[in-house]
Amino acid sequence: MSDDGFFGKYGGKYVAEIMRRPLDELKEAFDFYMKDKDFLEELDTIRRDYIGRETPLYFAPTATKLLGGAQIYIKLEGLANTGAHKINNAIGQCLLAKRMGKTRIIAETGAGQHGVATAAACAKLGLECVVYMGEVDVRRQQPNVATMELYGAKVVPVTSGSRTLKDAVNEAMRDWATNFETTHYVLGSALGPAPFPDIVREFQSVIGREVKRQCAERNVDIAAMVACVGGGSNSIGFFEPFINEKSPRLIGAEAGGIGPGVGENASRMTGNASREGIVQGFKSRFLLDEDGQSLPTRSISAGLDYMGIGPQLAELGMSGRIEFTAILDKEALDAINFFARNEGILFAMESAHAGAAAMKLAPTLPKDKAIIINMSGRGDKDLFITNPVFRKEKWIDFLGAELERVKNSTDIHDAASMFNK
Which of 87, 71, 376 is nearest to 229 (CA)? Predict the structure, then answer.
């Protein structure tokens, strides 16, 4: 873990004085409980019995044959309870908060998977849950909004700014500053002011540790590991056990959007608008204009369109330990199709960026080497995004018919009346 909250020149704790007490309290509790046998045993039990760990490492024979070159393996985090890697961090932080005596949890979410995971963790542990979500993301991720509410969470649409993840983070921070005596903020990615980057990496590192053990047991010779990178929670956890080793290659797939122009992507390490800056309490690389103001981002993936990247990932990228590549929306969609049709595995839109990067890399590597893709989540949540692309007319017909059914069904009206009494 970082001693001072910095990774090289990135990281830190650039916050108002009112935020220092909750952050210091959090660091003290985290340092204590990560050495506490009872806490760690309870966390391991929940991981096994509730999350469903360990998740499989799947060899993809058809994809390997079709792509040529390296063997393709997929770490199936989409099989974890709630459908993505986000539950690893959410459970860890919620359990930590409960040990700290907190009764209320707040979170931000973009694609909705972190919100779903936090809501589920709160339901499991008996904690109140409020999730801040940009109004744009609320509209495009309604299935996840419905799931959060089903778990008992209150979802608050954020209407300020660009109405996406950045603005949801701002609202959550404001709430925490006001209510920290009873409230813990479960930040969903490996960014923000210290100690959050360390906390999120530690709880997500279960992914990479499993991969390392699974590959050793099966004598898999890893040439490269590939993960999508938004803020960076799945990637830093996936890469963690390998960071201080010279191999394998670590490759981060960013959102290339529709092109290289400003406002067309969310490429913080490879984009031409990337600058160092201090935003939302930490120093890293962000998409900023010359005055240091955040630029608009674009991605078909709601989980990869944050304007910044976690500080440890930024440092590892600048040092060359992690290689970054930008994946276009179309390439991610092609990867969803490829793995669904050839392996029966439905990647989340975010994870498909990693799949697309692996598809490019595989033919360049020897057949006795392996590429491990972190499928950070499954694609059920993206049906409202992918269906208009893959089968537009049929989807329009379905939505129209479904709307009429909901309007006119007496069974639905009767059930709704009973539920709302």
Answer: 376
Closest CA to 129 of 164, 102, 111: 102
What are the distances in angstroms from CA 135 to CA 160, 189, 230, 290?
9, 19, 19, 27
Q: CA 210 to CA 237: how far, in whole Å?
A: 11
| Per-residue pLDDT reduced to its tens digit, 82-117 | 999 999 999 999 999 999 999 999 999 877 889 999
Options 13, 27, 75, 86, the catalytic residue: 86
Q: How many angstroms separate the CA atoms of 306 and 376, rounded? A: 17
State yes or no: is 154 an active-site residue.
Answer: no
Residue type, 36: D
Identified catalytic residue from 267, 274, 294, 376: 376
**Residue 2 annotated to the active site:** no
In a domain, 244, yes or no: yes
Please indicate, yes or no, whether residues 90 and 173 belong to a single structural domain of this protein: yes
Instruction: Give the tens place of pLDDT for each residue, 322-364.
Output: 999 999 999 999 999 999 999 999 999 999 999 999 999 999 9
Q: What is the pLDDT of residues 356-410, one digit of tens each?
A: 999 999 999 999 999 999 999 999 888 888 999 999 999 999 999 999 998 887 7
pLDDT at 420: 64
| Active-site option among 98, 102, 108, 274 | 108
| Segment (H or E) for 389 | helix 383-390
* 173 shares a domain with 141: yes
Q: Which two tokens stand for residue 328?
A: 């276009």
H helices, E strands: number in the chain: 16, 14
Q: Report the mean per-residue pLDDT for the chain.
A: 93
Tally the domains of the chain: 3
Are both 211 and 92 inside the same structural domain? no
393 is an active site residue: no
**What is the phi/psi pair of residue 248, to 5°?**
-80, 180
User: What are the percentages of helix, strand and coil residues in the chain, rounded to 5?
Assistant: 50, 20, 30
Q: Amino acid letter at 215?
A: C
